[in-house]
Amino acid sequence: xxxxxxxxxxxxxxxxxxxxxxxxxxxxxxxxxxxxxxxxxxxxxxxxxxxxxxxxxxxxxxxxxxxxxxxxxxxxxxxxxxxxxxxxxxxxxxxxxxxxxxxxxxxxxxxxxxxxxxxxxxxxxxxxxxxxxxxxxxxxxxxxxxxxxxxxxxxxxxxxxxxxxxxxxxxxxxxxxxxxxxxxxxxxxxxxxxxxxxxxxxxxxxxxxxxxxxxxxxxxxxxxxxxxxxxxxxxxxxxxxxxxxxxxxxxxx
Length: 253
Known about the structure:
Blueprint lengths: L6 E2 L7 E13 L5 E10 L4 E7 L5 E6 L8 H4 L5 E4 L2 E7 L2 E6 L4 E8 L2 H10 L10 H13 L9 E3 L5 E19 L2 E2 L11 E2 L2 E2 L5 E10 L3 H14 L14
């Protein structure tokens, strides 16, 4: 895995906004809870961290450490959420392949270990070198989805879809890793053991992997309201120096 510079950036695609960094696409647990993590070192509005949680009843919440809800994950997923809030989140690489996530409110601790078998290391070496344009043609994207489904056991997922916000989106997992061990407590309650699901869980109609999956990559979302985008980006740039920005540790070898 390689280091990603922390900064405000912009998508090279016209009329798009983007995020880049690393994430746990999903981590299912035996309790029926699902977790997710987004550590975006780069975005149009600045770096941020988000922890995703779906209760056994199916209610989604996203907790973000960033300037505002309008510039973090809830910007795209809010119509599918029962709760979205800002809180302090600490993400620490305790080893080359060990990650610890802590949150103040609600009280939350999550540790995990990631790995890649030899075939996945070879696949990552190729995938990480492919140019950005190669994600646009539908046939090339379909090939990647086929590998994710058949070779990586991620189930029936799509890398191109419409966000609950209405924005057409392409996600680009450039490097994929499996989560070997995972342990989490939420408000003192253990979420149990990590599991693989038989069917893909969804958020806002968007399918997530069936197995605990860590990825390094990016996503590009079509801008549907240019004036809102311009205004929000200007506000983010103006307040960048004084805003509380999370400390992000990049994934490194």
